[in-house]
Each structure stands twice: as structure tokens, then as C-alpha cells.
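## tool: complex_structure
## caller: assistant
## args:
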Amino acid sequence: MTIKNVAEYCGVSVSTVSRVLNDHPDVSEAVRARVMAAVQELHYVPNSSARDLVRPQSDAIGLVVRGVGNPFFTAVIRAAEQAVNRAGYTLVLHQIHTEENELLAAASLARAKKLRGLILLGGCFDYTPEQTAALDIPYVCCSFTNSFGSLGNTDYSSVSIDDQAEARRAVEVLLRKGHRRIAVLLDSIRDHSISELRYRGYCQALGDHGIRLDPALVAETGDFDMAAAYDSVRRLLERKTDFTALFVIADSMAIAAMKALHDGGRRIPEDCSIIAIDGIEMSTYTVPTLTTLIQPQDEMGEEAVRILLDMVEGRAGNRHVRLHTTLRAGGSVCRAN
Amino acid sequence: MTIKNVAEYCGVSVSTVSRVLNDHPDVSEAVRARVMAAVQELHYVPNSSARDLVRPQSDAIGLVVRGVGNPFFTAVIRAAEQAVNRAGYTLVLHQIHTEENELLAAASLARAKKLRGLILLGGCFDYTPEQTAALDIPYVCCSFTNSFGSLGNTDYSSVSIDDQAEARRAVEVLLRKGHRRIAVLLDSIRDHSISELRYRGYCQALGDHGIRLDPALVAETGDFDMAAAYDSVRRLLERKTDFTALFVIADSMAIAAMKALHDGGRRIPEDCSIIAIDGIEMSTYTVPTLTTLIQPQDEMGEEAVRILLDMVEGRAGNRHVRLHTTLRAGGSVCRAN
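## result:
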């Protein structure tokens, strides 16, 4: 079975079949459907040896995911994987725990797999030039930046939201509803990472409204785990500190927080409003639906691949893309009494 | 920086450093920690060229995931990826939509990436020998079997739960609580797939108790989507058919179903008990916690890799492993009134 058989079977040219198989845009939907049906009926398997001949280099793009099981990453990984495949490259996935060193893992992967480029999904915000020196291939920081590090802007690429500004915006939603006693649930206020940036946004929003920060309202989980988030909120409730609203730095942690509030006898939103950042599918189905700032997950994955391949293929150098969130008004925020 | 420097730095032999880097078990935790700390401090990057020399073959293991975004797969993928890496292979991930042909995708990937072996995560249950002929490398069906197909038992490998028996067990939990009007939420009763098998288990459990099947209690979503599950339950409620319990074939669909029951004014479990199969982390945090049969996701991913590498490395032929679920008694099931 050759590509010629497929072309004859559906009455189109060999180059048209080739365009369909390589996912080129300049083919009508009708022709694409006809060719794909023929490919399936004839059990035709594209032979890549010709391509291998003209492309002796590795076609591997690494994706190092730090934060195994973080549901926010699921859609980003999917989008990145599809973009990498569409471009004719191979995605090599490597997932590590947050306590592991992603730069070491990435450098090791890059050598072992002869990677052409690398996407770091969920890494540290405080790289130094010495640390990244081991990465001698193009790479993109996806979902994070170097806010606490010493890399120059032209030393690395990134795609992310503005964590501090978006956190400020989330807390602002609560403030506008009249809340003044607003608790925050985060990993750590000094993690030199996403948690610290979003904490800054929280502090900034309070400052904008002349509200003094109350350390008793800061719940640190020490982990991005749902179980840790649940326990932190239970402890916050046991302290009997008064609060009418809660800002959580991630949807998954917010889902656990809602459970903890419920188990602690607080109604949402009547006794406690709650808002988060992320917009994972699951948080649509909490009761009530979680109010959150949705990050464009697909766009984030696709943009990371675009930036990376522009570098891999020599079209452009390092660059930074800031994406914006969209407010989903669920039922978890109401006016303060 | 060489492996010798690392060995000198922490006062152990080169072979000890090598064992740590290759994740061999015969190293004490203390030594492992010391070596890893040195590796990080010295920014040592293992050089794989020696390994490349002795292993000229590709080290790629493909993982074709059918059902993009299915949260049940997250932990399975993570476990499989880690097992593949521990064994010194590279995982090549390819995610496709449920409407795509995973065998075609797999065969194409196998040729293009020179795969040594392949794991199919979430595929069809009705392969024929003609269809799988295109796969000329070892492969393992992960989370599914060939219940509706014509492959011989020695023609393929699989690791999964016994879908029909586990569904029967789930419905049995409801029956023992006195429920007689039990609805079922599934993709399709005739999909020749997981949905049809679990539907059979549902019918079997009803039959065990002499209960006649009422087609009005069968809600087909036509999709594994959470949105489709939500809509199906809303429609079920609108039909005003009386039921006191609901069996859902997957946790993610059950989370959407709980939201639909709530929005339709039904309390869980007082007005409707609900049980599912899967045991994803999210379903721990529903209100109330979902009662479900937990599949051993990590074990499933690891076992798939074990079966596959036994074949790739010539230690064994095709085999089948059936795993068992564990009941998590949440708060979503109560005694029928």
C-alpha cells in the first residue's frame, strides 16, 4: 500500500494526499475527509523514511513538567503536544516532582535525547545565568518568568500571565463586593515563585483600598497539594479568625478549600466568598461554580511551541509573551454583609 | 565536570555515582542524597554518549492516549512515564481525540519514531487481527481489553480492571442499601467499549436482584465529556422518571452529574445516592465526597510498562493482567427511604 494507491483510490493527486497527511491548511474539508476515509479503509500507514532522509537531525522537543498531576497543566500539555506534532516534531515528555531540579532534569534530557528545543512547564522563577548555562539549546519558560532571578530579558523566553497583576485583579473583585476581611490561601509567601507573586498582588489590592494586611489571614500550605490546601483551611477556621472572603492562588486548591469550608460549617458564598485563578474544567462543576480568572491554557501551550520553534528554526530570538485571564463569574462570590 | 569529579567531591566511587544516576536500588538513601546534592551543587550533567554507543537502537516507547483531557489518565500517564524513564527508555507521547483512529495513529508513530514498543491508553475494545496487523512492534492495551473484538488471547497484551464485574459490584452497593429504582449514566449502551461493558454489569446486578431494566432510567451522553454528562442528568430529571440512586461509569462524569442533581434541586444522598468507578483525586473533594470504586492508576501504568518491556527485551510474550478496585465509601450513598 503506497501513497499512490491512496491517491488513485480517492481520485486526487499524490501531492494532495501528502498535504492532507502532513496537515497542511490548503486542502478543502471535503477532500481532507475523503482522503482520511481512504487512508483508514486501506489501512495505509504513511512511510516516514523519505522525511528521515532529508532530516537527519533529531526532531525531538522536550517538555519537562514540574508538578506532576497539576490539573492546570493537562490542557497546556495537550495543546503543546498537538502543536509540536503539527509542526512535524516529536514531543518527549518528562514529568518531575516540584522538589526536583527541573534544570538538571532538562539538561540531562537534552543530551540523552538530542533535543532540538525545550519547554519548561512550571519551573522556578529565580534562575541565574550560571544555572541555565547547562541548557545549550533554545528553551521557553511556560507559565512562569524569571521575576526573582537574574537572567536578562534576552537570555530566555517565556509565556505566562502577569501573576501579580492577575492576583490583584482577583482580590479586587472581592473588594468591590464590599469584602474587607479577605483571607489568602497559597503555597508560601516566600517561595520565590508563583505563590509569592500572587501574594504580592493580594497585598497590593489590599493596599489600594487602604486595608492593613493581617498575617492571621494568610494560610500557607507549604505545598500545591489539594490535601494540604484542605488542611490549611481547616486550621484557618479553627483559629476562629474572622473573614468573609478567601482568595486562592489556584483552582485545584480552591476546590479543596471549598470542601474544607463546607466541612467546617461555612456556606459558600453566604458565609465566605471564594475566588481563584486558573479556570480548569473541574471548577465549573463545584457547587456553587467557582468564580475564577481563567488562564488561556490552550493558547499558553501553543504560544510556547511557537516561540520555541521560531528559535529552533532560526526565525527569531528570545521573546516574552504575556497572556491575559478572563473572569468567569461563578456562584462563589457574593456581596459582603 | 565529569562523573569522577562528582565521585571525588562526595568521597564515593565512580560506580556508586553511576548507580545513583541510573536509579539502581542497591544504594543507601544517605549516599543517594549525598551524591544528588553534589550533582546539583556542581551542576553536573550526565553524559549519555557512552550509553548511546552501546545502544544504537532507538529507545523510544510510544504512549498513544485516546481521550484527550480524561482526568483518569493523568495518574496513569505519570506512572507509565516514570517507569519508562527508570528503565532507561524514552517516552514519546501522542494524545488523540476519541473520534480518531488510535491504531492508525499508533502505526504511524511507530514508523516515524522507530518505536520499540507501544502502550495504547484508552482504545477500542473491538480490534480485528487485520486492524492490528499494521502494528509490528509489541504493544499493550492499557485500561481496556478486546472484549468485543476477534483477537486471540495470545495476540495482544492488556492491563485493565474487569469492567463488567466492577460495574456489577458498584450497582450491588446501591442495591444492598435498598435502592430499586437505579438510573445509569454512560456514554452509550452500544459503543463496543467500556461503556457497554459497564452497562452489562449494571444490567447483571439488577438481574441478580430480580429487578426489571427500565430504559427510562438509562441516560446516554454520547460522549465522555463532563458537559454532556451534566446535560444528560438534567434531561433525566426533566423526564420526571422516579429514581433514588444513580450509577455513573466514570468519576469525572459523576462530578458533573452531582452538579446537575444539585441544580435540579436534588440533595445528595438524601434524594439521590450516587456511585461511580475510577477514584480520581478530584472526586475526594466533591460535597459530599463521591463514593466510588478506585482503580489502581499507578499500578496500571507501571504494569503496562512491565508487560511491554518484558516483550521488548525478550523475556516474555503477550499476557493479560486484571487489576481490582477498592471501594471508597464517601458520603454520596445512603439507604433508600
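## assistant note: The two ends of chain B are 72 Å apart (CA to CA). The longest strand of chain B covers residues 60-66. Handing back to user.
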